[in-house]
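Quick one: structure tokens for this chain, please?
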Amino acid sequence: MSERRSYNTKQRELIRQCLVSNTGHYLTVRRVCALLEEGKTPVGHTTVYRNLEAMASQGVVLKLVGAGNEACYRIRPHEPCGQLVCMDCGKVEPLDCNMLRSFAKHVYVDHGFEVETERSVLYGHCAACRTA
């Protein structure tokens, strides 16, 4: 059985542009649909989901399942980065800083283990949930 081919459709380009416009943020399928609707270019929920999943499997976007078990997507950054996930509200944020790269280098040099920083996830509590 052969793999399904991927096509660059108008809808896929709209979804990609939505992610590019929100670089640095993870978006759920519902949020992507809402943003597209706000921009007067609505795309169906199933179409958004299928396209995001295809782009994730192609490495175009990063996919992360948040604390609430809802998938979140982000356009793949130029530099690998980790993710921060709030265990209370499920908020997902990118961890784009040199500290993760320094940590990964330490683990590699001192422990002989190569960390995939873009797949690294730190769970904790965001500032809003800590103050609530």
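The first helix runs from residue 10 to 21.
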